[in-house]
């Protein structure tokens, strides 16, 4: 950035009150232009932007104390930084218990997001509260200025990380479209949301970075090499010790009446309470009840209540028929997304 002005401006301004000739000369002569360069560069380029925030950091500090909590979080940031660098990225800055990173390609940001979540799981100590992070990730034009990033792509990313649950990676449909085909298969549309300063809505998508956090990853070369388009996804429901499968051809009805596929014997459930089905490779639940259907995603206390509406189901969580899923009981079902090849 530069500043341009008339040389000697203030000196001449003082003289104009005393000398009319000086005033006339100051106002009519061609200005002598001096340019001051402050060394600030600004360019616009395509970048992948990633925001990562430590979840419930206040609780961690209260539980462990400032010294131990800071040590644990710094250790986490060091592990995340290694994954950023391994993916060819750069950490732009850290903000409290969060970090902002940039990558040249959309695929690089995607891989870093997945590896960062995996690093958190591997870092978790057995005798202390588990650290979890939420991640927002976008790709598009950004303004690069003084080693920082600005613009709409950055603003949308900040919005996404505020929406993301613990251990979740959220991105946009625009970013998914910029991914290589094999990586697009690991993303699912969730819902549209508003971003401040934007006229239209942004379609939020979830990056399916893991299948099941309780399952050890098997080092199977042939399975990992399988084209992802050939994977088959199912939704597994568990209630009262029984398991039920929802796939592309088999929707499931939930309710109090005996004719339902999953019978939930509770006064809070309607006779035909809800239906779960597959559409375009995603699983949805539709509420058809009087009291509503409650959805609680793992790792968050934020619950969604459906009233005669539908919602896409994520990787895993709880479904409450008629009352909150946070209060476990006969009205609650467990759901989990699984892959079958």
| CA radius of gyration | 27 Å
**Approximate shape:** globular
Please name the CATH topology of the largest domain: Alpha-Beta Plaits
CATH architecture heading of the largest domain: 2-Layer Sandwich
- Structural class label: alpha+beta
Which spans of ≥5 residues are poorly predicted at pLDDT below 50?
A: 1-19, 33-38, 212-229
Strand content: 35-45%
CATH class of the largest domain: Alpha Beta
CATH superfamily label of the largest domain: Nucleotide cyclase, GGDEF domain
Percent helix, as a range, is 25-40%
Q: Mean pLDDT across all residues, rounded?
A: 81
- How many strands in all? 21
H/E topology pattern: EHHEEHHEEHEEHEHHEEHEEEEEEEEEEE
Give a structural overview.
The chain is an alpha+beta fold and 341 residues long. It has three domains: 2-37, no CATH class; 42-207, Nucleotide cyclase, GGDEF domain (Alpha-Beta Plaits, 2-Layer Sandwich); 228-340, Tumour Suppressor Smad4 (Sandwich). Helices cover 26% and strands 37% of the residues. The chain contains nine helices and 21 strands. The strands form four sheets. Strands 3, 4, 5, 6, 7, 8, 9 and 10 form an eight-stranded mixed sheet that branches. A six-stranded antiparallel sheet has the order 12-11-21-20-17-18, with no helix packed on it. Strands 14-13-15-16-19 form a five-stranded mixed sheet, with no helix packed on it. Strand 11 (232-239) and strand 12 form a beta hairpin. Helix 4 packs antiparallel against helix 5 (106-123). The chain is globular, with a radius of gyration of 27 Å. The protein starts with a strand and ends with a strand.
